[in-house]
Amino acid sequence: MKTYGLIGYIRLYEKYHGNIQRVFADIQAIDLRVGNTWPELEEFCNKYNLDTCDEYEHKHIPFVVFLIQALKKYGKIPSKTSEEKEFKELVKKMERFEKEENMEEARNNAYHAFSDKLNINVR
């Protein structure tokens, strides 16, 4: 620190200055466990009856519920490209009303049902 009458300056420094780079800052890890659900998630998904709910309720159901229920209807984890397309069509058929954002999210994230094919159990 130095002063010259009414003017002065302070210089702060540290001997070591480390630079940390966040390489994976833009990559999001998504683990929905669609094919390997736990009991509480199963219970949460089973409480929704997609055939009898009204428009408001249907538009506010989380998209993961659609994926898990579609996987139950399909009966197995899709492993071939043709099965993956059939599963995506099944998810698309679950849409009942126009402009449902949750159904758009379900269609866009349908690959999570068959992306992790290791250690997956369908109940």
End-to-end Cα distance: 71 Å
Number of helices: 6
Strand fraction equals under 5%
- Would you report the number of β strands? 2
User: Which strands sit side by side, in order, in the main sheet?
Assistant: 1-2
For the record, the count of structural domains works out to 1
In which range does the helix fraction lie?
40-55%
Largest sheet: 2 strands, antiparallel
* H-E order: EEHHHHHH
Topology:
Elements: E1 2-4, E2 7-9, H1 39-46, H2 55-59, H3 63-74, H4 81-93, H5 101-108, H6 112-115
Antiparallel strand pairs: 1-2
Report on this structure.
The N and C termini lie far apart (71 Å). The longest helix has 13 residues, at 81-93. Residues 117-123 have low confidence and may be disordered. With 123 residues, the chain is mainly alpha-helical. It is elongated. The chain has a two-stranded antiparallel ribbon with strand order 1-2. It has helices at residues 39-46, 55-59, 63-74, 81-93, 101-108, 112-115, and strands at residues 2-4, 7-9. It has one domain (28-115). Strand 1 (2-4) and strand 2 (7-9) form a beta hairpin. Helix 1 crosses helix 3 and helix 3 (63-74) packs across helix 5 (101-108).
